[in-house]
Amino acid sequence: MKLENYEVHLPNYSIGDKIYDKIGPVCESYGKKVLIIGGRRALKAAEDKIRAYVAKTNLEIIGTKLYGTDCTYAAVEKLRELPEYEEADMVFGVGGGKALDTVKCLCITDDKPVFAFPTIASNCAACTSVSIMYNEDGTFLKPNFFVRPVMHSFIDTEIIAKAPSQYMWAGIGDTYAKYYEATISSQDERLEHFTSLGVATSHMCRDPLLMYGAKALADHKKGLCTYEVEQVVLAIVVTTGIASIFLTKDFTPDYNSGLAHAVFYALTSYPVIEEKHLHGEVVGFGVLLLLLVDGQMDEFEKIYQLNKDLKLPVSLEDIEITEEQWKESLTRIPDMSDIRHYPYKVTPEMLERAMEILRKRNRS
Fold first, then answer.
1. By the 8 A CB rule, do 218 and 226 touch?
2. 36: buried, middle or exposed (CB in 10 Å: 19+, 13-18, 0-12)?
3. What DSSP assignment string belongs to 83-115?
4. Phi, psi of 71 (to 5 degrees)
5. Tell me: the pLDDT tens digits for 4-38?
6. How many helices (H) and strands (E) would you count in the chain?
7. In 10 A of CB 12, how many CB atoms?
8. Strand order across the beta sheet in which 152-156 lies
9. What range(s) does the Alcohol dehydrogenase iron-type/glycerol dehydrogenase GldA domain occupy (predicted)?
10. What is the rounded distance in angstroms from the CA atom of residue 267 to the CA atom of residue 278?
11. Per-residue pLDDT tens over the stretch 190-247
């Protein structure tokens, strides 16, 4: 069967410690007036540097606004009503995943040029064409897909190296998940060209983390931007974004997620997850269960050891989930949309068996 027509928009990005000097050459063709929208801590970390480089261009910053606290449709509508947003020719989104996803949902929907300035390396929001939307109470709502990502992403390694290291720590867990979820959800299928590219690219979501993850995190804790830090930042922010774009098309099965994310989103029902734990941290724990359910014992040992080395979670206690809450989740996880397209039906019994193996591994 011939596939219907489709288009692919890949992310453009610049990376380095003085990369904001590319703001003028990249952005000036889109207009003059710039509105900056970001998170409170992100703006404190990056706004002065952005303004210093914008001052050397023909651009004019007409305002700075906070995005809100969660990526919700209500937050998007509140920003849309701002007179500065109406006046702006383009928007600079500054921050982590929720800030960038909010700005993307606002601007890409309105076809207004938007540029990403990630300040932490915890996820691929700066380079992917999806926003993860939440309910007003902080629980997961749904992914909102777009035809394209931001116009350009400016990845300043100096700012990211000075950010709290727990964001990269969690980002590592979210990133290696992409490889395992993509390869499992696509196994034994005849794939379209773009899906094959996504699965092939996903190898680069795992390999640099196994090679450089421990050294990168140690360097990041010292505020250094070494080769290892840069390789891990690129894997988290760029490679995962590219893989996600190739793995997600609205007329094909979704190969972009899997059991590790299903575990995370099911556990967001408990406030402790959103209040005290990071997305990638919990996803990294979910990967252990994914590998045990899939019977990949060698890969399980690699990730178990990496998690131990990085102090990523290896038990329910590490993410403050009780046995009773886990039992409740066993019936929710199999119904999560993340495993709607999976090579087999995930059952509560599979999950409980995987957890029992994990408990034995921890005791040993």
1. no
2. buried
3. HHHHH-SEEEEEESHHHHHHHHHHHHHHT--EE
4. -85, 90
5. 788 899 999 999 999 999 999 999 999 999 999 99
6. 16, 8
7. 13
8. 13-16, 152-156, 114-118, 90-95, 33-38, 60-66
9. 12-138
10. 12
11. 999 999 999 999 999 999 999 999 999 999 999 998 999 999 999 999 999 999 999 9
Please give the helix or strand (H or E) that residue 332 lies within, else none: helix 323-332
Residue 180 in 3-state DSSP? helix
**Mean pLDDT computed over 126-139:** 91
Angle, nearest 10°, between helix axes 193-221 and 165-185? Answer: 160
Task: Provide the token pair at 126.
Answer: 């700066």
Cβ(71)–Cβ(105) below 8 Å: yes
What contacts 137, CB < 8 A, 6 or more positions away?
A: none
- Is pLDDT of 282 > 80? yes
Q: Which of 261, 301, 93 is nearest to 181 (CA)?
A: 261
Return d(Cα 70, Cα 274) in angstroms, integer: 11
Q: Are 169 and 217 in contact (CB under 8 A)?
A: yes
Specify the length of the chain in residues: 364
CB 139 within 8 A of CB 275: no
Backbone angles phi, psi at 148, to 5 degrees: -145, 160
Tokens describing residue 23? 């703001």
pLDDT, tens digit, 9 for 90 and up, residues 285-336: 999 999 999 999 999 999 999 999 999 999 999 999 999 999 999 999 999 9
Please state whether beta strands 60-66 and 90-95 pair in parallel, antiparallel, or not at all (unpaired).
unpaired
Residue at token pair 């406030």: 271
Domains of the chain: 13-162 (3.40.50.1970), 180-363 (1.20.1090.10)
